[in-house]
Automatic annotation (TrEMBL), chain A:
<dbReference type="GO" id="GO:0005737">
    <property type="term" value="C:cytoplasm"/>
</dbReference>
<dbReference type="InterPro" id="IPR022587">
    <property type="entry name" value="MTMR12-like_C"/>
</dbReference>
<dbReference type="GO" id="GO:0046856">
    <property type="term" value="P:phosphatidylinositol dephosphorylation"/>
</dbReference>
<dbReference type="Pfam" id="PF12578">
    <property type="entry name" value="3-PAP"/>
</dbReference>
<protein>
    <recommendedName>
        <fullName>Myotubularin-related protein 10</fullName>
    </recommendedName>
</protein>
<feature type="domain" description="Myotubularin phosphatase">
    <location>
        <begin position="190"/>
        <end position="630"/>
    </location>
</feature>
<dbReference type="InterPro" id="IPR010569">
    <property type="entry name" value="Myotubularin-like_Pase_dom"/>
</dbReference>
<keyword id="KW-0597">Phosphoprotein</keyword>
<dbReference type="InterPro" id="IPR030564">
    <property type="entry name" value="Myotubularin"/>
</dbReference>
TrEMBL record, chain B:
<feature type="region of interest" description="Disordered">
    <location>
        <begin position="105"/>
        <end position="125"/>
    </location>
</feature>
<dbReference type="InterPro" id="IPR000387">
    <property type="entry name" value="Tyr_Pase_dom"/>
</dbReference>
<dbReference type="GO" id="GO:0012505">
    <property type="term" value="C:endomembrane system"/>
</dbReference>
<dbReference type="InterPro" id="IPR030587">
    <property type="entry name" value="MTMR1_PTP"/>
</dbReference>
<dbReference type="InterPro" id="IPR011993">
    <property type="entry name" value="PH-like_dom_sf"/>
</dbReference>
<dbReference type="InterPro" id="IPR004182">
    <property type="entry name" value="GRAM"/>
</dbReference>
<dbReference type="InterPro" id="IPR029021">
    <property type="entry name" value="Prot-tyrosine_phosphatase-like"/>
</dbReference>
<dbReference type="InterPro" id="IPR037857">
    <property type="entry name" value="MTMR1_PH-GRAM"/>
</dbReference>
<feature type="region of interest" description="Disordered">
    <location>
        <begin position="195"/>
        <end position="215"/>
    </location>
</feature>
């Protein structure tokens, strides 16, 4: 082996990051059927990531896209899915859990990552003992027994202890900067009263108010401190009602339609005796907050959408399909297998149901209540999708981030359990990914309606697997406060007035990417167009007036009351037992179903207003697999010189030219005598820039369908007819359940 | 932005149409009630497919254009006066009430000609399309052109450029001509091309509103026909003839007009009457190409559309097309099908009303079936069926294909696109190892090869003849492509006649050795046998076979395991079953899987990638053959060349590729497609060329910026593979083509395409000059080509394609560029020095573009 004893430098160690263990002379396997491309280097396990530092520095990628927190071969510990150790001479293999013993010296380590990467190391030349130690260290640190053992705590603790040493300029208190620091846009985090109040004003929800009864999490530990309720409900009543809701999760307002209809999410009422009364009171209050006093339409998500276990099962199958099977020789059944995962079917179900609720709000002018047992899983997804379809603000970057804050982080989506950061949860479910996938479907169908690109969505998905950002670490806002206060006390950190520690925020993208790389988040089709009302992601508020109401009002209430939606489908005045609601309500009433069809038909027959409502196409050919997200690490799936990025490149260049012209036009108009202002001309919002006007230069060589991700360094087959990956791994198939392998050591 | 404008234009136009023909419609609606009700319960039928709407609107706008062009209106009327012998009805609402009450089709004023009888179609109509060009300037006939203009594509253009620029209309007319196919379909192609991609048509009707019919489709159609006919009968159909000869047709028309308009026709409004009558006349008749003539017109024919239900209209059969138009829908409904796509015409029984009703099922080669129903009362009504059969299968009936009658003139002569000498010169041939041989100039060496061949320099003609004797059908190994640097070559041939006794041919062995030696970079020759190993063995028993490694020591034989033409035909048949007319959404992907269509596409692409890789990375020459070397061989060599040579990825280059690897090297187009032949079960038919185009499309999907042409280009090629409008895909080999004088007696498809290149240009195209493109030949990167295979389904419309946005950006840029230049000029005149160096003249404009990405 070509072992050159160069000084190997570790990536700049982050605050609080410590090297736990390391081993030299490790071979990272690249191809399954040959070792000629393998890399030699040092495998390092820290309390944040595993790192592979090559002996020969890797040639830099021609594009300089990289994550500032992670090297090319690094895997954050929270991104590790499964660790398999193999001794090929003894023909033994073992899936390593935490605190387990390993009775053999591993010759090989295979790490399956949550982002669908497979990393394989060989220890043929390494010291057997140190190889074993590294494997055990990785197993131990990637499966912490306690939340406070996650790296984010270590990091934040260090920052609080040494406030002067801000590594990489990370300010732990930093709120959510937008993508470009220049715009100065901050993502509202909805932690404060004022953020909610602004949202009320933005959406014109005049009959709604911010409620502070949960300040200090006095009522519910899984609700935010501030949330929005109908103005007609008094705090006192709310407190009283709260006991009847699961988790004391009172109804939460999400959003208001310009026509006055509200989107509300609500947990089930567990108190059977009180159920009817409370339900009625709540619904009456919502009705009273509607300018038309329209009825409330309830959708029981548990009954019409797949549950989290089903979604997890679909995800597991998808993972198997995308990583293990796609390039087998016998791939003729690939489409059937894809269908059998049911992933796309569930995507369609969410999009479809959300579109139907959009119809209720948009066309029927009724407020919609999303009902779910705890109201913090499916409702996060449905509420977000509805808003993305209805409100163009949420299709901007800042808007989208605020939506995730509002409907996921603050509403108590259990990121810790659902992402399974501690690897012990049986409640894992990729709802957040499914949401991003649904948004990707819309982005794919209406590319010019979104300010962000699919790279942005992919990177957002990855960020949930980096245990540094407080955004995706906790099950609810209260958990952050509670855990970090405990942690602070144990570490002797003075918190002062702060409620818990401040963790880095994922929306501060400068922590992960340079400003140039962040340009890849911008969708050239959106930016390139002069988008009225959404310039530079500026807030777009609905123009509302009393006049508007009256014009939309005409003729509406009779239509509703005349049984277009069957009486029992609405929150009934007399009989309000939720259990009696039919799950397939939308199809039960002939007349209503017809008018919904009519609505969709009319909508699709009209030109799309990209800054208005958008509705998804749902046919079998139009719901697609998100290839960038699922295939980017599979080298065999990479189309070199190709992929939609080549079209993206072309549009970017063109958008840049348009920008350039706009700027020079402005320059001429403002002051034609001063040809200066070159600084302004240098600013581009595009990652790919034009070399002057009418740029005819070709597509850059480095573009591929996985751009900007580089699957180099991940396990692959060398040739089309090479050994199938699954055969090669001979039994150590991916994501074996721990039980089946437990006895094999 | 742009598209929004366009839409507003469209909507306005549509509305105005409705106002003029509303009465007519309401009456028309009644005759359809029964069938509509029946359809309604099926869920599908009431879906007013936006395609149809869009198309209809197109038609509608044709009429609407009248007011915009009122200058021509008068001229046109005077023409009518002189040409028409019939008085025309008054306002259309009256028409509706009166004429329709009896359930008859709208009393139509007859063919607007009425005058010179049979000569007419070749008269004004014949010139129509050219006159569109001369719109406004050409006097009387121009009015005609405007009114009966060819349809949706044109409408879009007009909507886009309300000024009605003659040039655009011409282009649109040309596009609508050959491309137009039924119920708005190939309009979609045109639109997909982007003329108005963001238009109303570009959206799906609703999210999930359609049910698929439960029972078998055949059963469903039978019921439908039965119900349709019963509704006709119950509507007390008058004794009006349904089908009659063109000449015969005129008499009842006159009578009809008298009947229908007694008491309504007012002398006070002759102009109005004329105009309306004129509209109606044109509303029901087919647009004609130069050289095209009407053979039958039949009215009250029911077209049973699987997507929008039964429509009653007038059927016109010409020597080129079958055209159904119904004005009872608003906008009018049109099915326009070139007869060339018809594979089979069959009568289908209608059980319940066996007395005199009749159904026809027309199976098409382009993934759809059409069903017609009509009342069969008199003897002569058989003519519909018989005429259709005769015209659809001219070859079987001793008639010439329409391509030989087509008289269109294009600015460009497509027959000049491919010159073998020029193409070989482009490749750097001849060189010291390869010569251009004239040995086959009289097609004696091989009657299915072109006259010009490239063979190794050192090979003697005598030896070549011996090689030819050893190779099936005399198809000796000849050069298709040579790598400009490594000199590695792709050569193609047929299988060697090894036979069961392992026959050898010294000259053949030496010949292959010479091919290998011509490439100094490698001491190996790879022979790709496209077939399955087992099939090649079977062939050996039948006298064919493959090169044994003992006889060809330096050759490596690789079987690509691609199935034969019969398997491909069966696969496409299955594909049609799952896409037409309805789609099972829940089992969509597994259904696609079950056809194996994409799997076969994958195998072809994978094979071509291996060939290209051997040439490019291995610098090794390859020989490609299957059995005869005209199906799979052509697919593989053409695809490999497309991957290796960026020239073939331009429009011109692709035309050359098709001319060279397919047409000149004797892919048996006539046989594989079955041009004009009624033997639909012919085992020689197979969608080999379609498969190739599908592979090309897959590549354009994976490399959206690498091809100069767009999706419309590929769809247009496929449409004219069947249409028999152009001579390009006629006959089986060069020798035959020469004998039939195809290049002098027919028009080339490339004439049509190259005279409107902007329609077929991919706006994303950037120069990939020195790139070899390796598509990922894996099922997870292959997609079903929805825009081709499922284009008849109005629900499967493409979304707002990304190129639409690109187009807008291009338009914005042009506009801005102009402004900046103006300001610069202004600044310059004020003698303020401007340091800016930009501002070359705008070379881009908002051209209609077509790819969807």
């Amino acid at each position: 082996p070509l072992l050159d004893k160069k000084k190997i430098k570790l990536d700049p160690v982050r605050q609080g990051e410590i090297v736990v263990n390391e081993v030299n002379f490790v071979r990272k396997c690249i191809a399954t059927d040959t070792s000629q491309y393998d890399l030699w280097g040092k495998l390092v396990c820290t309390n944040f990531k595993i790192s592979f530092i090559t002996d020969d520095p890797m040639p830099l990628q021609k594009f300089h896209y990289k994550n500032l927190l992670l090297g090319e071969h690094d895997v954050p510990l929270t991104c590790i899915e499964q660790i398999v150790t193999v001794n090929d001479t003894k023909r033994k293999q073992k899936v390593l859990g935490p605190n387990q013993k390993l009775k053999f010296n591993p010759t090989e380590l295979i790490i399956y990552c949550k982002d669908f990467r497979i990393v394989r190391f060989r220890f043929d030349e390494a010291g057997p003992e140190s190889a074993k130690k590294v494997c055990l260290a990785i197993a131990h640190y990637s499966q912490p027994t306690d939340l406070q053992l996650l790296f984010a705590f270590e990091y934040v603790g260090e920052i609080y202890h040494n406030p002067a040493k801000k590594v990489n300029g990370i300010d732990p208190g930093g709120g959510g900067g937008g993508i470009s620091s220049a715009s100065g846009q901050q993502t509202p985090l909805f932690e404060t009263y004022s953020d909610w109040d602004r949202e009320i004003k933005r959406t014109g929800a005049s009959e709604w108010r911010v409620c502070s009864v949960n300040e200090g999490y006095m009522i519910s530990t899984c609700l935010p401190e501030y949330f929005v309720v109908p103005s007609s409900l008094a705090d006192q009543d709310l407190k009283l009602y709260s006991y009847s809701f699961i988790g004391r999760r009172m109804p939460l307002w999400s959003w208001n339609h310009p026509n006055g209809s509200a989107l509300v999410r609500m947990a089930n009422i567990k108190d059977v005796l009180q159920q009817r009364r409370i339900d009625q009171r709540i619904c009456n209050a919502i009705t009273r907050s509607h300018p038309l006093r329209s009825d409330v339409y309830k959708s029981d998500l548990d009954k019409c959408l797949p549950n989290i276990q089903e979604i997890q099962a679909a995800y597991n199958k998808l993972k198997q399909l995308c990583v293990n099977d796609p390039f087998d020789d016998t791939e003729e059944k690939w489409l059937s297998s894809l269908e059998n995962t049911r992933w796309l079917e569930y995507i369609r179900a969410f999009l479809k149901h959300s579109a139907e609720l959009v119809y209720m709000m948009e066309c029927k002018h009724v407020s919609v209540v999303l009902q779910e047992e705890e109201g913090r899983d499916l409702s996060c997804l449905a509420a977000s999708l509805i808003q993305v379809m209805l409100d163009p603000y949420f299709r901007t970057i800042v808007g989208f981030q605020s939506l995730i804050q509002k409907e996921w982080v603050m509403a108590g989506y259990q990121f810790l359990d659902r992402c399974n950061h501690l690897k012990r949860s049986d409640k894992e479910s990729p709802l957040f990914l499914m949401f991003l996938d649904c948004v990707w479907q819309l982005l794919e169908q209406y590319p010019a309606a979104f300010e962000f690109s699919e790279v942005y969505l992919t990177v957002l998905h990855d960020s949930a697997r980096i245990s540094l950002f407080g955004t995706f670490l906790f099950n609810c806002p209260h958990q952050r406060v509670k855990e970090s206060t405990e942690f602070a006390i144990s570490k002797n950190i003075q918190l002062g007035d702060e409620k818990g520690l401040r963790f880095p925020c994922v929306w501060d993208w400068s922590l992960q990417f340079t400003s140039r790389d962040r340009l890849l988040f911008h969708n050239p089709l959106y930016v390139g167009k002069s988008a009225p009302g959404v310039h530079n992601g500026a807030l777009r508020t609905f123009k509302r007036s009393k006049k508007n109401y009256s014009s939309t009002l005409r003729g509406v209430p009779p239509a509703i009351k005349n049984g277009i939606i069957g009486e029992q489908e609405f929150v009934p005045r007399r009989n309000s037992l939720i259990l009696k609601l039919k799950p397939e309500f939308l199809h039960s009433a002939e007349g209503q179903s017809h008018s919904m069809e009519q609505y969709f038909r009319d909508w699709f027959a009209k030109p799309v207003d990209l800054h208005g409502v958008i509705l998804p196409h749902l046919s079998g050919t139009q719901i697609k697999l998100w290839k960038l997200c699922y295939f980017r690490w599979v080298p065999e799936a990479q189309i070199s010189h190709g992929g939609s990025i080549t079209a993206f490149h072309r549009v970017s260049v063109l958008a840049d030219e348009v920008d350039m012209l706009n700027r020079s036009l402005r320059q001429y108009k403002s002051n034609s005598s001063l040809p200066g202002h070159c600084s302004e001309l240098d600013q581009s919002r595009m990652y790919f820039r034009a070399n002057g006007l009418n740029d005819t230069s070709g597509t850059p060589d480095f573009l591929s369908s996985s751009f900007p991700f580089s699957p180099v360094g991940n396990l692959c087959k060398r040739s089309i007819l090479g050994t199938p990956l699954s055969k090669f791994l001979s039994g150590a198939k991916i994501w074996l359940s721990t039980e089946t392998l437990a006895n094999e050591d | 932005m742009l598209c929004r404008n366009e839409h507003s234009v469209m909507h306005e136009n549509t509305i105005s149409v409705i106002s003029t023909s509303a009465g007519l419609l309401s009456a028309a609606a009644s005759s359809l009630t029964v069938s509509a009700a029946l359809l309604g319960c099926r869920g599908t039928a009431l879906e007013p497919g936006p395609t149809c709407q869009a198309v209809g609107r197109g038609r509608a706008v044709n009429i609407i254009r009248l007011p915009c062009l009122c200058g021509e209106g008068k001229i046109k009327m005077s023409v009518l006066n002189s040409a028409s012998t019939s008085p025309f009805p008054a306002a259309s609402p009256r028409w509706g009430r009166n004429g329709r009450r009896a359930g008859v089709a709208v009393p139509r004023p007859g063919p607007p000609s009425a005058g010179p009888g049979p000569a007419f179609p070749r008269g004004p109509l014949g010139r129509r399309r050219r006159q569109v060009t001369a719109l406004g300037a050409a006097g009387a006939p121009a009015g005609w052109a405007v009114v009966a203009g060819p349809g949706a594509a044109e409408r879009r253009e007009t909507a886009r450029h309300p000024g009605g620029a003659a040039g655009t209309m011409e282009r649109a007319a040309a596009a609508a001509g050959p491309a137009v196919e039924g119920g708005g379909v190939s309009r979609r192609a045109v639109r997909a091309g982007g003329a108005a991609a963001a238009g109303a048509g570009s959206r799906q009707p609703s999210t999930e509103t359609l049910d698929s019919p439960t029972g078998s489709h055949v059963e469903w159609c039978k019921q439908l026909i039965a119900a349709t006919i019963s509704s006709q009968i119950s509507g007390s159909v008058p004794s009006e003839g349904v089908s009659r000869d063109y000449r015969v047709y005129r008499r009842p028309v006159i009578r009809e007009i008298q009947d229908g308009h007694n008491g309504y026709h007012s002398e006070a409004e002759p102009d109005q009457a004329l105009r309306d009558g004129n509209k109606l006349a044109q509303m029901e008749e087919a647009p004609l190409f130069p050289g095209e003539s009407i053979k039958v017109i039949a009215k009250d024919v029911m077209y049973i559309c699987p997507f929008m239900g039964a429509v009653s209209g007038t059927l016109t059969v010409t020597d080129f097309r079958m055209f159904i138009k119904s004005v009872e829908r608003d906008p009018p409904f049109v099915v326009d099908v070139p007869l060339g796509v018809i594979s089979r015409v069959e009568k289908i029984g209608v059980q319940s009303h066996g007395d005199n009703s009749c159904g026809i099922e027309i199976v098409c080669k382009d993934m759809r079936n059409l069903r017609l129903a009509y009342k069969q009362e008199e003897q002569n009504r058989l003519e519909i069926f018989e005429n259709l059969v005769i015209r659809a299968f001219p070859v079987s009936n001793g008639l010439p294909l329409f391509a030989f009658s087509y008289k269109e003139k294009f600015a460009v002569n497509g027959w000049k696109v491919y010159d073998p000498m020029a193409e070989y010169k482009r490749q750097g041939l001849p060189n010291e190892s390869w010569k251009i041989s004239k040995i086959n100039s009289t097609y004696e060496l091989c009657d299915t090869y072109p006259a010009v061949l490239v063979v190794p320099t050192s090979v003697k003609d005598d030896d070549l003849s011996k090689v030819a004797a050893f190779r099936a059908k005399g198809r000796v190994p000849v050069l298709s492509w040579i790598h400009p640097e490594s000199q590695a070559t792709i050569t193609r041939c047929s299988q060697p006649s090894v036979g069961p006794n392992d026959k050898r041919c010294k000259e053949d062995e030496k010949y292959l050795q010479t091919i290998m030696d011509a490439n100094a970079q490698s001491h190996k020759l790879i022979i790709f046998d496209a077939r399955q190993n087992s099939v090649a063995d079977t062939n050996k028993a039948k006298g064919g076979g493959y090169e044994s490694e003992s006889a060809y020591p330096n050759a490596e034989l690789v079987f690509l395991e691609i199935h034969n033409i019969h398997v491909m035909r069966e696969s496409l048949r299955k594909l049609k079953e799952i896409v037409y007319p309805t789609i099972d959404e829940t089992r969509w992907l597994s259904n696609v899987d079950s056809t194996h269509w994409l799997e076969y596409i994958r195998m072809l692409l994978a094979g071509a990638v291996r060939i290209a890789d051997k040439i490019e990375s291995g610098k090794t020459s390859v020989v490609v053959h299957c059995s005869d070397g005209w199906d799979r061989t052509a697919q593989l060599t053409a695809l490999a060349m497309l991957m290796l040579d960026s020239y073939y990825r331009t429009i011109k280059g692709f035309e050359v590729l098709v001319e060279k690897e397919w047409i000149s090297f004797g892919h048996r187009f006539a046989m594989r497609v079955g041009h004009g032949d009624d033997d639909h079960a012919d085992a020689d038919r197979s969608p080999i060329f379609l498969q190739f185009i599908d592979c090309v499309w897959q590549m354009t999907r994976q490399f959206p910026a690498a091809f100069e042409f767009n999706e419309l280009f590929l769809i247009t090629i496929l449409d004219h593979l069947y249409s028999c409008l152009f001579g390009t895909f006629l006959c089986n080999c060069e020798k035959e083509r020469l004998k039939e004088e195809v290049s002098t007696k027919t028009v080339s498809l490339w004439s049509y395409i190259n005279s409107q290149l902007e329609e077929f240009t991919n706006p994303f195209y950037v120069n990939y000059e020195n790139h070899v493109l390796y598509p990922v030949a894996s099922l997870n990167h292959l997609e079903l080509w929805v825009n081709y295979y499922i284009r008849w389904n109005p629900r499967m419309r493409p979304q707002v394609p990304i190129h639409q946005n690109l187009k807008e950006l291009l338009a914005i840029r042009t506009e801005l560029q102009k402004k900046v230049e103006d300001l610069q000029r202004e600044a310059a005149t004020r003698s303020i020095s401007s340091s800016s160096d930009r501002g070359s003249s705008p070379s881009h404009s908002a051209t209609p573009v077509h790819t969807s990405v």
